[in-house]
Amino acid sequence: MNVRQLKTTVAPRCQCVNGVQATIKSCLYYGGRCAARSHGIGAQARSNTNPYYLTLLTVTLTTPLTEGELLERAQSIAGLTFAEVAGPLGWPVPETLHQAKGWVGELMETCLGASASSLPEPDFQAIGVELKTIPVDRNGRPKESTYVCAVPLTGNLDLTWETSVVRQKLARVLWVPVEADPRIPVPERRIGSPLLWSPGPTEEAALRADWEELMELVIMGELDQLTGELGTYLQIRPKAPNARALRESTSETGEKALTLPRGFYLRTSFTTEILNRHYLRRG
């Protein structure tokens, strides 16, 4: 894959000459709207023809009842900046995301009408769809692993892949790429074109194998064996605000113990494959 193909994945800022858009393809993945600031196409020009943006202005957001409705909403805000979406909701945009890592995800959940909040089930409960934002660099590559859900450290003896929260969360996902180039101010970073995805047989088999390998160590109380190298696509990492945020677990001897909470994460190699396959096919 060459650099030009990668760039179309995240729709880099359009190159415009004398106010004329030089290339259309670079805009396709942001709803067909040129995001260049140099010729004045900004929030006002786009919002005037964007019905869902007008809905945001009235803050009458409801939970989508079909996949089509959800996808239409997500496509309607593709190409808009964080500031353009957060403004109608009355959300202040942080200058940096270092101390507000969950801000982008919460913004997307709110404006798209997610209903599950932090519950162990898909964000859009009525239609069984999970929402995942993917911060991408200037070349369209995911910058970080994707959090899936918390690891069940107790009460896990009867769990199977079929009944796991990981499988429920990943059965149907709305992926939304978002700009994460540090050179772009947070308010000016844009939302990418969404894609609805379900794992194919090969992907699910790989995820299941990872989950079973990792959960075997958890159930056996061998948490010290859970290194970042384990798992082809799925890995387990600590997820805690600080070293004092301990949770109950089971030790190797079957006794109760305290440990840091952990989460399941998808490796960037997995999400990169998803984005490349989808957007290059469209391109």
Brief characterization of the structure:
By secondary structure, this protein is an alpha+beta fold. It contains nine helices and ten strands.
Which tags fit this structure?
single chain, 283 residues, alpha+beta, ECO RV Endonuclease, Chain A, 3-stranded mixed β-sheet, 3-stranded antiparallel β-sheet, 9 helices, 31% helix, 16% strand, disordered N terminus
Could you give the topology of this structure?
Blueprint: H1 3-10, E1 16-17, E2 20-21, H2 43-47, H3 51-58, H4 67-76, H5 82-89, H6 103-112, E3 130-136, E4 146-150, H7 165-170, E5 173-179, E6 195-197, H8 201-219, E7 234-238, E8 247-250, E9 256-259, E10 262-266, H9 268-282
Parallel strand pairs: 3-5
Antiparallel strand pairs: 1-2, 4-10, 5-6, 7-10, 8-9
3D structure, described in words:
There is one protein chain. The protein has 283 residues and is of the alpha+beta class. The protein has a single domain (3-282), classed as DNA mismatch repair MutH/Restriction endonuclease, type II (ECO RV Endonuclease, Chain A), CATH 3.40.600. 31% of the residues lie in helices and 16% in strands. It has 9 helices and 10 strands. The chain has helices at 3-10, 43-47, 51-58, 67-76, 82-89, 103-112, 165-170, 201-219, 268-282, and strands at 16-17, 20-21, 130-136, 146-150, 173-179, 195-197, 234-238, 247-250, 256-259, 262-266. Strands 3-5-6 form a 3-stranded mixed beta sheet, sandwiched between helices. Strands 4-10-7 form a 3-stranded antiparallel beta sheet. A two-stranded antiparallel sheet has the order 1-2. The longest helix is centred in the last third of the chain and has 19 residues, at 201-219. It is globular and about 60 Å long. The model is unreliable at 1-45 (pLDDT under 50).
